[in-house]
């Protein structure tokens, strides 16, 4: 029997930058990739265990009360927003964005009035604490969220003098375009499900090794952890759809960080949306064998690396985005999946002054067929993988009874 959890809201507050934003920075331009990013939040929750020690860590008393911790978080967040000033603003042309992309993301009052960053600190009866962060995908991807959390946590650790500065300049590399020329409603409507359920699947390192051996072939002799788990999850979801629907084609879109792929490479703290979409297609008359799927995933990634425009040609990127949007409108012809791997992103190193998190996880997304992967809390970050999978009810029931999946999950 599920135990009902009650959360009492103690206070709501708007945190502003501790210093006024200079006038020449009062308007921030979105880049081309920002414009085409979904109107949704990128969520993350960090869970911190209670501190029992009487010692001092990073200059902060372990036994600070919750009120003292939250005051410290608010003060340092305000200081951090001086550097991340766009996150303290609001999107002005929301009417046009809704027309183009539809409204998605968490159903909360703040989401409807344009706040770009939401933060919640929660205290548990055991003394543990959770810090939840949701940032608008219009201004940030997962790498930018990590950069923000690194900077904020460094501000919190009062003995740490060096700072972690973001670089804003994506709009100069990929200038925005006029969105009013688009009349067809693109991606987001395709991804919104009627009755979606999010399930969490955890794969231990030992089971992933079994999966890697099982999915190896002459084409891909050593699949990566992410390739093997992606193939299993996608296979399980496709098998469910083959039972419940008559879709002829399945398309998996994976997000790929382009910062290290440009010439010269962009620094990891380059803020904004800097990802490309790697697409893999499978017809329903093709095999869903794990070896076949891993080979398709690897081929798609290798093709992306080969043909990606390292010079970031604006016209070429724009044409690719337009083509992707037009293709996704045809949702009656195929079933679309979106996959993002946050593995190897060091979210488990985010220390606000009272230790590292015991668990980092995504919140459920509002989109069907979404697959989000993160490392499990292991010392080297190379162990298990946690998957948050969102499907509609009928398909999720079939996935949860998939014996191949159940044999390998925790």
Give short descriptive properties of this protein.
410 residues; alpha+beta; Chloramphenicol Acetyltransferase; 6-stranded mixed sheet; 13 helices; 19% strand
Describe what this molecule looks like in 3D:
- This protein has 410 residues and is of the alpha+beta class.
- It has 2 domains: 29-180, Chloramphenicol Acetyltransferase; 188-343 and 364-406, 2-Layer Sandwich (Chloramphenicol Acetyltransferase).
- The chain contains 13 helices and 12 strands.
- It has helices at 32-36, 66-83, 94-101, 109-112, 142-156, 170-173, 187-191, 205-215, 225-244, 290-307, 314-328, 393-399, 403-406; strands at residues 41-48, 56-57, 60-61, 117-123, 129-136, 196-203, 249-257, 275-283, 334-341, 359-361, 370-375, 385-392.
- The strands form 3 sheets. A 6-stranded mixed sheet has the order 6-12-11-9-7-8. A 4-stranded antiparallel sheet has the order 4-5-1-10, with no helix packed on it.
- Helix 9 (225-244) crosses helix 10 and helix 9 (225-244) packs across helix 12.
- The relative contact order is 0.18.
């Amino acid at each position: 029997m599920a135990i009902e959890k009650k959360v009492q809201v103690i206070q709501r507050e708007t945190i502003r930058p501790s210093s006024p934003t200079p006038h020449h920075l009062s308007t921030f331009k979105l880049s081309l990739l920002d414009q085409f990013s979904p109107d949704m939040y990128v969520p993350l929750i960090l869970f911190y265990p209670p501190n029992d020690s009487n010692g001092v860590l990073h200059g902060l008393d372990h036994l600070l009360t919750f009120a003292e911790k939250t005051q410290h978080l608010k003060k340092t967040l305000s200081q951090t927003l001086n550097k991340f000033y766009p996150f303290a603003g609001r999107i002005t042309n929301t009417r046009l964005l809704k027309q183009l992309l539809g409204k998605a993301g968490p159903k909360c009052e703040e989401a409807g009035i344009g706040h770009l960053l939401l933060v919640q600190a929660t205290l548990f009866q055991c003394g543990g604490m959770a810090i939840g962060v949701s940032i608008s995908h219009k201004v940030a991807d997962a790498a930018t969220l990590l950069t923000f959390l690194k900077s904020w946590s460094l501000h919190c650790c009062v003995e740490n003098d060096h700072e972690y500065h973001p670089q804003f300049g994506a709009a100069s590399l990929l200038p925005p375009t006029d969105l009013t020329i688009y009349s067809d409603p693109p991606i987001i409507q395709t991804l919104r499900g009627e009755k979606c359920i999010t399930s969490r699947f955890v794969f231990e390192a030992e089971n992933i090794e079994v999966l890697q051996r099982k999915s190896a072939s002459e084409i891909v002799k050593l699949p990566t952890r992410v390739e093997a788990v992606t193939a299993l999850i996608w296979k399980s979801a496709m098998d469910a759809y083959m039972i419940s629907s008559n879709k002829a084609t399945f398309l998996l879109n994976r997000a790929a960080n382009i910062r290290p792929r440009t010439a010269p490479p962009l620094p990891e703290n380059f803020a904004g949306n800097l990802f490309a979409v790697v697409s893999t297609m499978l017809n329903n008359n093709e095999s869903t064998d794990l070896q076949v799927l891993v080979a398709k995933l690897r081929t798609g990634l290798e093709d992306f690396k080969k043909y990606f425009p390292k010079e970031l040609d604006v016209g070429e990127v724009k044409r690719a985005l337009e083509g992707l949007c037009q293709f996704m409108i045809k949702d009656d012809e195929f079933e679309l999946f979106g996959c993002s791997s946050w593995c190897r992103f060091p979210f488990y190193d985010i220390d606000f002054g009272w230790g590292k998190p015991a668990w980092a996880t995504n919140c459920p997304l509002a989109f069907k067929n979404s697959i989000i992967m993160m490392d499990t809390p292991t010392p080297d970050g190379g162990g298990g993988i946690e998957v948050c999978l969102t499907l509609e009810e009928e398909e999720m029931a079939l996935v949860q009874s998939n014996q191949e999946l159940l044999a390998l999950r925790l």
